[in-house]
Design a protein that fits this description.
One of its GO terms (molecular function) is transferase activity. It holds the Pfam family APH. Keywords: Transferase. This protein has helices spanning about 10-20, 60-75, 115-130, 155-170, 175-190, 240-250, 255-275, 280-300; strands at about 30-35, 40-45, 50-55, 85-90, 100, 105-110, 200, 210, 215-220, 225-230. It is α+β, with helices and mostly antiparallel strands. It has 2 domains: about 10-100, 2-Layer Sandwich (Phosphorylase Kinase, domain 1); about 105-300, Aminoglycoside 3'-phosphotransferase, Chain: A, domain 2 (Alpha-Beta Complex). Helix 3 runs parallel beside helix 6 (about 240-250), helix 4 (about 155-170) packs antiparallel against helix 5 (about 175-190) and helix 4 (about 155-170) crosses helix 7. The longest helix has 22 residues, at about 255-275.
Length: about 300
């Protein structure tokens, strides 16, 4: 499934050729597809390893970030995160960097894997609080560590506005796009965030949260790792059931302004995902539609006093 222009074709033959050239001791291990996201394709290698390959050459910068920063962040986090064990270099057949990580056992967060959603929300809040509390170690919001979700909402207003127009043309009859846009525009009028910059995972959606024995086990895919304001970090809780969302908010004591900005980020990511992936990635479009539906349901419910 091709999602982007200039996507690099990847198959088992290519992966084995990379391993043969750079890690021959792994080249004959069993190899099987282990999923694909919007930016990377993954293969499980043997029992203990995961090969991570960017879909396009420019996505390689995300793997470089992981290779540099995950070994420094991991000792400071209670929750397991990926451990890079090989920094692959470009070849003629694959013209960008790639990675091999330790395999982490677990299943994606979902109704069949999570035992108690309130406990899950509190556990996720603990991970986020811990990550946001880590010293920046000299890192700043610049270059690869500067991502739009760690900034203010207003710089995104023009292109998100175009995404709303796309959504009206596609899912408009099935979603209250006008209500979503009203919530988005109301958030644009809120004060810009002024809290200190923190470390951000950037994409804490359920597919990046691994569960074992019903509880949060690990957080994966730090390709969106960045430094910035924490508001957008909270946006993915609208991908979780309401019990998890409330427990998360309570655990972090998030005020109304922060919550409304987080919701606006959730709207922005949802409508932009529908706009960009409408013809190429129906499963991701479905995730975005579900997120926006949860936001509308929340907005329709009376707020607690």
């Amino acid at each position: 499934m091709t999602l982007h222009e200039n996507e690099i074709p990847v198959d088992e033959t290519l992966v084995r050729s990379l391993l043969t050239a750079q890690r021959p001791e792994w080249a004959d291990l069993p190899l099987s597809p282990a999923g694909a996201g919007t930016e990377n394709t993954m293969y499980r290698l043997g029992d203990d390893l995961l090969v991570r390959l960017p879909r396009t050459a420019d996505k390689g910068q995300s793997l470089r970030k992981e290779q540099e920063w995950l070994p420094r962040l991991a000792p400071l986090l209670t929750c397991p995160i990926p451990e890079p064990v090989h920094a692959g270099t470009p070849t003629a057949a694959f013209p960008t960097v790639w990675s091999v990580h330790r395999w982490i056992d677990g299943d994606q967060a979902g109704p069949d894997t999570v035992r108690d959603w309130s406990a899950f929300g509190a556990d996720l809040a603990a991970v986020v609080g811990e990550l946001h509390g880590i010293d920046l170690m000299g890192a700043t919001r610049a270059d690869d560590l500067s991502w739009y979700r760690g900034g203010g909402l207003r710089p995104c207003a023009e292109w998100i506005g175009r995404c709303f127009a796309d959504c009206r043309a596609t899912v408009g009859p099935e979603l209250e796009v006008d209500t979503l846009e009203q919530l988005w525009r109301a958030a644009l009028e809120l004060p810009e965030p002024s809290s200190p910059h923190v470390w951000l995972h950037g994409d804490l959606k359920p597919t990046n949260l691994l569960v074992r024995e019903g509880r949060l086990r690990a957080v994966i895919d730090f390709g969106a790792l960045s430094v910035g304001f924490p508001d957008a970090e909270h946006s993915t809780v609208w991908d979780l059931p309401s019990q998890a969302r409330q427990a998360y908010r309570d655990a972090l004591s998030l005020d109304d302004v922060t919550w409304d900005r987080a919701r606006a980020w959730a709207i922005a990511v949802g409508v932009s995902g529908i706009s960009y992936y409408w013809h190429t990635y129906p499963a991701f479009v479905a995730e975005c539609r579900a997120r926006l539906g949860a936001i509308l349901a929340d907005a329709a419910a009376p707020r607690a006093a």
